[in-house]
Amino acid sequence: GASKLILHFNMNIGSCPAVQFCVNYKNGGISYRSARDDFGFELDWTEFYTTTRKPSAGDVGALPVSGGVINGNLGIGTPNILGGSSIVLGDNDTGLKQNGDGLLDIYANGVQVFRFQNDTLESKKSINVTGRLTPTDYGNFDSRYVQDFRLGSYESGQAWMG
Questions:
Q1: The domain containing residue 20 runs over which residues?
Q2: Nearest partner of 48 among 59, 40, 58, 39, judged by Cα
Q3: Which end of the chain is more exposed for a tag (fewer CB within 10 A), N or C?
Q4: Average pLDDT, the chain
Q5: CB distance 86 to 97 below 8 Å
Q6: How far apart are CA 60 and CA 115, in angstroms?
Q7: How many CB atoms lie within 10 A of CB 107?
Q8: Is 60 helix (H, G, I), strand (E, B) or coil?
């Protein structure tokens, strides 16, 4: 038996005078090609995608689920106006942007509000804390910041005696 069947339709008029369909054995796929004017079939067969012959991510220019590279910015649910290597979330000017080697910035309403670097964190706005801040380095908690203040002493005239 034949492993494929080619169906040829010839109208012999217009800018597409003929079309061919190629059907492969056992639902192995359907392809087509069309002729142009008097030039005949210039291009190779083009496959139809079906529910049983689905395209790969590469076939349609998409990223595979396993990952890939996006060249340019990315907007999730919105266009991205931050530019460069950035991801916006929710609206077009709030998100993350890589602004140089080792620099990751956070933007809100188009304004940089925070920066992560390999050796420092930098806030461009006030920080409000409702919990406790616990430092791991007490090196800057010394007499440079607290001077002329005594507890547990009594007042004697204009001088504090302790």
A1: 4-53
A2: 59
A3: N
A4: 84
A5: yes
A6: 37
A7: 20
A8: helix
The answer as to whether 162 is a domain residue is no
User: Binning pLDDT at 50, 70 and 90, where does residue 141 land?
Assistant: low
* pLDDT for 27: 84
Task: Give the number of other Cβ atoms within 10 Å of residue 88's Cβ.
Answer: 22
Domain assignment present for 156: no
pLDDT tens, residue by residue, 75-114: 888 888 888 888 998 889 999 999 989 999 999 999 999 9
Interatomic CA distance for residues 127 and 106, integer angstroms: 14
Query: How many domains does the structure of the chain reveal?
Result: 2
Tokens representing 156 are 């004697």
Residue 95: Cβ within 10 Å count = 23
The model's pTM: 0.51
Domain presence at residue 29: yes
Q: Is residue 158 part of a domain?
A: no
The token pair at 59 is 């076939």
Helix, strand, coil shares of the chain as percentages rounded to 5? Answer: 5, 35, 60
Question: Band of the pLDDT at 19, cuts 50, 70, 90?
Answer: very high
